[in-house]
Write a structure and sequence with these properties.
Structural class of chain A: alpha+beta
Number of strands of chain B: 14
Structural class of chain B: alpha+beta
Oligomer: heterotrimer
Distance between the termini of chain A: 26 Å
Shape of chain A: elongated
Helix content of chain A: 40-55%
Mean pLDDT of chain B: 84
Chains: A alpha+beta (381), B alpha+beta (318), C alpha/beta (257)
Low-confidence stretches of chain B: none
Radius of gyration of chain B: 42 Å
Strand content of chain A: 15-25%
Strand content of chain B: 25-35%
Distance between the termini of chain B: 81 Å
Largest sheet of chain A: 6 strands, mixed, barrel
Strand order of the largest sheet of chain B: 1-9-13-11-10-14
Radius of gyration of chain A: 29 Å
Number of helices of chain A: 12
Largest sheet of chain B: 6 strands, antiparallel, barrel
Number of strands of chain A: 10
Number of helices of chain B: 3
Chain lengths: 381, 318, 257
């Protein structure tokens, strides 16, 4: 009977495509919007993927990774003094103004890495040697910074190793090019040594933005972070903690989540409306046949199962098509990185659950109608 | 299965495939590249970390000029090893030389005067002796004899005065030579020139007081001045062992010997070198000594210092 | 074939041997309050095994309601129904459904074939509902289609057939699981007279099977001639039963009027 139920569903091509299409559209809307939203959110934490460290230590009032409140130089040593810390290095982070060859000013995300270890260096180098960062006035830029409409302005081509530009009237010579994940602010990354970064940055009383630390082997990152906080009074985060805190900040301080959430909910509602309507009318249209089946001895359970199977089938297929479109969208833009896009595996399942919920709801309406149906209806002309 | 005759099903499966592809692409995470060199690590389980500067073991000697003047010669370069007394540089000595030459001429002239005096004395002595004989023979008058005697006495006295004047002039020459010697600045002790901020032809005393003309240090034993944040000062126990590692080369380690704790907590030296900088960090300075290691180290180099924390925490009871 | 009857719910009251359908004092009302109307006002009905039994009467006399009650698709307010010795009244809905599934075949006025399923699939539905496997069901269904003269068209859709052909499919469907009671609601009213006669031929043939009873509600006098017995209804009651002699005079008078 279930096979026949599927045939009944597929036989009505117009309704079938309307159902599948509506659900596909709904799935597309939900997952695509959520992925763009996730991508946008992930941009706010891209520091943690462009600079790798287990524990991030910031000033006590800092809530998120993009915020800097400078610490004192000696705080690095205070962190190093905490039991369980394997090593700790300083990191400078700041948005500076750079001047391209044609004289135009471009904002850059300046990162100063500990000169000795260069810890927190970008994981993906495309050209050049990271250790050359120790040379005077040396910087490593990311591919975005190298672009013609960024620091490559006036060159007529992207910046290459050996090219130079200015940061705060100081020369910056490119010794390497790396690949980074785009940042929320959209500024390209420029890496230099910590000491060099302090030269580039406008002088302030305190310059130390962050401290990157690693726990001793075998120790739990969160425990060590906790101990750092207790002993130094600074704020220490593990990567997941800092991500969470940053995202929390974004949720609390920007309207981005609300607007995306609205669209996602809209997608759900559209899905419910289209699918519920169509499925219900599908049931109504087949009511006589369903009544005949009921008269012939199909139980309510069987009919409910058939309706549920039908709705779940269109749900799964619609969802597959919708999420496939989202994935194709993601794959297409993966190269350019614009707009932001990050598909969350957990959300794929959540969206699937939402779509199946839509279908279950739609089936439920139909089931209610069929359960109330007197089989005797078929005897009336 | 009837479903697989439908294009929609294949589209859906294709979609799921695309999702898997996308997720796998997204999850390809580049691993942490790690530090390029050994990071500064403490060898102790419980530690107080600090940074320090390498100094020569006895405090470095800032060489100054004895007086203002142009620099005539510089005998040493940065890195020259010197013994005590070796000349370092010389100020302009023309004035003193001129004075010496003048005084020497005076000595010469006085010595010539002495020769004249002696000749005169010999003459007068001869005359006096002859007139004395003539007087005895009653050929010459008493007066003539006396006159010759007095003349001789006068000449002798004058010669004595000339000798004194010669001695005085010679002393003046010696004094001028001392002045000349002072213009040559010599190493006060054995050592190694860490800095030479002086070039021939410059004026020696116009240098700002913060910068010395030359910096003389000892390079066989060094010391490290470790600066510990005042907030961590309580964690330092008496003579805790410590190690230092060179900045950027943390695998190069030097065991340290405790020398002393500076009892006065000072504002942190800022390495940006801006003297106008306001400082709100004060540091406790601890001085450690170490012998010249197998690898080259230089005075003024920054080091990471790890000091062992004593087993017992300082009493926190009120 | 002996009437083997599910023993569990057999009425303690012995039913007459050979009785297929027995109903006594059936009352059925529709609506509530002022709108409440009595469709059946204490109808008694009886049909025997092996007969083709017509229920006739003017529109609104309650014959379709009676048929629904007899088929177990509608619960009566009063009275009781026995089918082949099983007391239907008092069984739970799911028990009635199961009974119907096993023992009753249905033929509807509008055929009610599922338009998106092929003929063989439509016919196999009752077998599937009884738990048969798909292959076995379709084989039997194809055989039935052969018997109603539609061999070789198993994979066609009902919409490709004429009304008469569709009704034949419906008959195949009603008979495919060898039910003991076949219930037909105006099987010929949507058909022209030639086709109607062909259909009635098939149905009267079906009634020949031992132990089977075919119940037909109709107001089409052309088919009266096929009946073994006719129950006449008026105003919610069975007012007369015609068999043998009285049957032919009844047919005669009806056809004349």
């Amino acid at each position: 009977m279930f096979l026949l139920a599927l045939k009944m569903l597929l036989g009505d091509r117009a309704k079938y495509w309307m159902l599948v299409g509506g659900l596909a559209f709904s799935s597309l809307l939900m997952t695509q919007q959520y992925s763009v939203f996730q991508g946008l959110l992930s941009w706010t934490t891209s520091h943690m993927r462009n600079m790798r460290a287990s524990i991030w230590i910031v000033e006590a009032r800092v809530d998120q990774v993009n915020e800097t409140k400078a610490m004192r130089d000696t705080d690095v040593n205070r962190v190093r003094s905490v039991e369980g810390v394997d090593f700790a290095v300083p990191l400078f982070q700041g948005v500076l103004k750079a001047r391209a060859q044609d004289g135009s000013d471009k904002m850059i995300q300046m990162i100063g890495l500990h000169s000795g270890t260069l810890y927190g260096r970008p994981p993906r180098m495309i050209a050049g040697d990271i250790t050359q960062l120790r040379l005077p006035n040396a910087v490593i830029i990311d591919t975005v910074a190298a672009e013609v409409n960024r620091l490559g302005a006036g060159m007529g081509r992207p910046l290459r190793i050996g090219d130079a530009f200015e940061i705060n009237d100081r020369e910056a010579r490119v010794v390497g090019i790396c690949e980074t994940e785009r940042h929320f602010f959209g500024y390209p990354y420029v890496f230099s040594s910590y000491d060099q970064a302090l030269q580039y940055a406008p002088r302030q009383r305190k310059m130390l933005s962050m401290i990157l630390a690693e726990p001793k082997p075998g120790l739990n990152e969160a425990d060590v972070a906790q101990r750092i906080m207790k002993e130094t009074g600074l704020r220490a985060f593990t990567v997941p903690q800092l991500e969470k805190s940053t995202l929390k900040w974004v949720w609390a301080n920007t309207g981005i989540p609300i607007s995306f959430l609205t669209t996602i909910i809209l997608g759900f509602v559209v899905g419910v409306a289209v699918c519920g309507q169509t499925f219900y009318s599908f049931v109504l249209e087949n009511l006589r046949n369903l009544g005949a089946l009921k008269a012939m001895g199909a139980s309510n359970m069987l009919l409910a199962g058939m309706l549920l199977l039908q709705s779940m089938t269109v749900g799964l297929i619609g969802f597959g098509i919708g999420i496939g479109m989202t994935a194709l969208f993601g794959l297409t833009i993966a190269k350019s990185g614009q707009p932001p896009f990050l598909m969350d595996a957990a959300f794929v399942f959540e969206a699937l659950a939402a779509v199946l919920l839509i279908c279950a709801l739609a089936a439920l309406f139909g089931i209610r109608r069929v359960a109330k149906l007197e089989p005797a209806i078929v005897f009336r002309g | 299965m009837i479903l697989f005759k439908r294009i929609s099903v294949w589209l859906a499966l294709l979609g799921v495939g695309a999702v898997v592809l996308l997720l796998r692409g997204q999850n390809a995470k580049v691993p942490n590249p790690g530090p390029v060199s050994e990071p500064p690590r403490s060898p102790y389980a419980r530690t107080v970390a600090s940074t320090g500067l390498i100094e020569a073991s006895r405090e470095n000697v800032k060489i100054a000029a004895p007086r203002e003047g142009l620099v005539k010669r510089v005998f040493v370069k940065v890195g020259t090893a010197v013994k005590a007394g070796d000349p370092l540089f010389q100020l302009d000595d023309r004035e003193v030389q001129a004075r010496i030459r003048l005084l020497q001429a005076q000595v010469q002239s006085l010595r010539s005067q002495s020769a004249v005096d002696e000749a005169l004395i010999a003459d007068l002595d001869d005359q006096s002796k002859r007139f004395t004989r003539l007087g005895r023979e009653q050929v010459a008058t008493e007066d003539e004899v006396k006159r010759r005697e007095y003349s001789l006495a006068t000449a002798k006295a004058r010669a004595k005065a000339t000798l004194s004047a010669t001695a005085a002039a010679e002393e003046a020459v010696r004094q001028a030579s001392t002045d000349l010697d002072i213009l040559t600045v010599r190493a006060p002790r054995d050592g190694y020139l860490l800095q030479v901020n002086l070039r021939e032809g410059e004026s020696a005393a116009n240098k700002s007081s913060s910068e010395s003309l030359m910096l003389l240090g000892d390079v066989d034993t060094y010391q490290v001045r470790a600066e510990v944040d005042e907030q961590d000062a309580v964690l330092i126990g008496g003579e805790s062992p410590a190690v230092a590692s060179l900045k950027g080369h943390s695998d190069l380690r030097m065991p340290l010997r405790f020398v002393r704790i500076e009892p006065y907590v000072v504002p942190k030296r800022s390495l940006t070198g801006d003297s106008l900088e306001r400082v709100d960090t004060r540091v406790l300075q601890i001085v450690y000594a170490f012998d010249r290691p197998a690898f080259p180290v230089y005075v003024g180099q920054q080091v990471d210092v790890f000091i062992q924390r004593p087993q017992t925490e300082p009493a926190k009871k009120l | 074939m002996n009437p083997t009857v599910p023993s569990s719910k057999t009425s303690p009251q012995a039913q007459p041997v050979g009785q297929a359908v027995g109903a006594r004092g059936i009352v059925k009302a529709f609506g509530v309050g002022d709108a409440r109307t009595l469709a059946l006002k204490g109808a008694d009905f009886e049909a025997r095994e092996g007969e083709l039994h017509l229920i006739v009467g003017p529109s609104g006399c309650g014959k379709t309601t009676l048929l629904s009650v007899l088929a177990g698709t509608l619960a009566s307010d009063q009275g009781e129904v026995h089918l082949f010795g099983t007391r239907l009244t008092g069984l739970s809905t799911s028990e009635v459904t199961r009974f119907r599934c096993r023992n009753i075949g249905f033929i509807f006025q509008q055929f009610n074939l599922i338009p998106t399923l092929s003929l063989v699939e439509n016919v196999s539905v009752p077998l599937l509902l009884n738990g048969a496997g798909r292959r076995e069901a379709e084989a039997k269904a194809a055989e039935r289609l052969q018997q109603v003269g539609l061999g070789g068209r198993e994979r066609q859709l009902p919409t490709q057939l004429s009304g008469g052909q569709q009704q034949r499919v419906a008959i195949a469907r009603a008979l495919v699981h060898e039910p003991r009671l076949v219930i037909c609601d105006e099987p010929t009213s949507a058909l022209d007279s030639v086709t109607g006669h062909q259909i009635m031929d098939l149905l009267s043939g079906a009634a020949q099977a031992p132990g089977r009873c075919v119940l037909i509600v109709t107001h089409d006098p052309r088919v009266y001639g096929y009946a073994d017995r006719i129950s006449e209804m008026e105003d919610g009651r069975v007012t007369g039963v015609h068999a043998g002699e009285s049957l032919s005079s009844f047919i005669h008078s009806e056809n004349r009027s």
